[in-house]
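Input for the complex:
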Amino acid sequence: MPDTRFAAAQVCRFLTAAFERLGLPAADALTVAELMTQAEVQGSDGHGVIRLAPYARRIRAGGINLEPRIRVLKEKPAMALLDGDNGMGHLVMKQATELAIEKARRCGVAWVGSRLSNHAGPASLYARMALAHDMVGMYFAVGNANHLPPWGGLDMLLSTNPIAVAVPAGEEPAVVLDMATTVTAYGKVKAKAQRGEQMPEGWMIDRTGAPLTDPQRADEGFLLPIGGYKGYGLAMVVGLLAGTLNGAAMGSEVVDFNKDDTTITNTGQAILVIDPDAFGEVADFKARVDKLVRELRGAERMPGVDRIWMPGEQSHAKRMANERDGLLLPPALRTQLDALARDLGIPLLQDA
Amino acid sequence: MPDTRFAAAQVCRFLTAAFERLGLPAADALTVAELMTQAEVQGSDGHGVIRLAPYARRIRAGGINLEPRIRVLKEKPAMALLDGDNGMGHLVMKQATELAIEKARRCGVAWVGSRLSNHAGPASLYARMALAHDMVGMYFAVGNANHLPPWGGLDMLLSTNPIAVAVPAGEEPAVVLDMATTVTAYGKVKAKAQRGEQMPEGWMIDRTGAPLTDPQRADEGFLLPIGGYKGYGLAMVVGLLAGTLNGAAMGSEVVDFNKDDTTITNTGQAILVIDPDAFGEVADFKARVDKLVRELRGAERMPGVDRIWMPGEQSHAKRMANERDGLLLPPALRTQLDALARDLGIPLLQDA
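Predicted:
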């Protein structure tokens, strides 16, 4: 492995050490580190290692409960509502998903929501947890900063509330959709600004509704929802299901996690798990998914298109490559991680 | 009421008589007529009275089972899979939704899927059935004709697979999202062609990927999914959940309902019902929905925007107006209905 790359296990050890030093119990530090590493490995780099610094900042500011009592507030055979007790979102939603899987096995389908949770990384992490059980996972969350006004409005009252759906396949990689309800994620706008590039039309508009293409002016405009008013509607109903239904923050109650390190975010999320075994032979279902995947992939292509991708297939390819070759972290991120390691008094990533 | 308008009850009587004469048992004829009338009343005119002629054509061709034995094929506490026995989709999905509501009351959440169903009208009809029980409804369906290739492809292997979500409110109208996963519906393209108008860029592309704006050339291109590859991903996962999971048609198996009157469509749909009562006080939940609706509606507006609409609010306004003033049917549709009435030997709409 070239010395600019790090094995996933090494990154995970480093993150675990950091979270332990920040005060998380060892088992919880490992859980959060593993999920952040999985995010990095699948190419969700905006939700991977880069989040260590802001998480550390919030933890040190007292904005996270390090020893939360995550508990079931309400329960029925096919549902539960968890109180995350302001713990790390990864811990809350891992527990929520495990509970949903257990309930889905008995009931066929189950839904578990959270309140008083926190940012939990990419939506697909939790939807994908169902795959190991040959189940379908569907995840909804209220994003941790509002970047979207209602359609026709100027006040940013909605987040890019994501949806993820993971469907097991047989020989093919699982189909995994993970999408924000905006045309692009705010992280991609920041990346364009860092690289000094312009954005394409359709990513953002300004306060008059005109296209905004200069990422340096991002503060003067808004992200555009997919399909215009349709994406606004999707962002709203995802927020109703993941936030309002759970008694979690929605609309003006959403705390901007990037700007405020201490106010309890009361983040809401929800996971739906469906057990295909309840519908018939799982092997038959997975064979039908394979057949569909191959049919779509084998479609005649537009001029200049090399390959038709399935949802989640590019992440799958990244996951395979990163597991084989190790993770390539940008120099700026490595510098940041080294500074944090010295500050925390833990071994540098290269020595982890 | 001016003589160009018809009371909803009159339209419903006319449709009931037509379906009875076509051979549906009286109770089933009434159920289908009521749901089609509801579609018309809420402004879903592409799924309302206009569908009588194609339904009649398929029924007469023997493509619908007039006395289906709709039955539960598989069942667990929070799920069921219905075999629609090739009956009218309205009958199948009404039964599916009623079963999901009953199961959600016991389990908190329930999911019911269908196979061997048929076109059932607008997605919101079934999601909205949950509202009368103060529950949330979510509906997914495989559309009845493929108009969408996979992203980058040319073969139309996907339909505009719709999603509907209905969330009860307190004093405000319920929030009801009902959207195809394409930027526009194929019906709107046909309407532009009939009126001799051009389509805006972004509705369709041709086989080279260039914008297609002439609706007369619609056969040479494809509908565009919302958010590009994101909408393609949504259309695919909706199809996996509503079609593939249920053993219903998906991909190349989808029968073009507009061109083929006899092949069994094996349409798949799914309804998810969530009971907010399982999560806490329903009145509190509905008050939170009201608060969010008012906050979004009250946002500062862009120049030239008169009002910020909630998902489903325009349909709600149409429903109120049409119930008060009666339904205004276009002259071409009235001519078609009169011809059909004479052909079937039932009273004309004006005499129904």
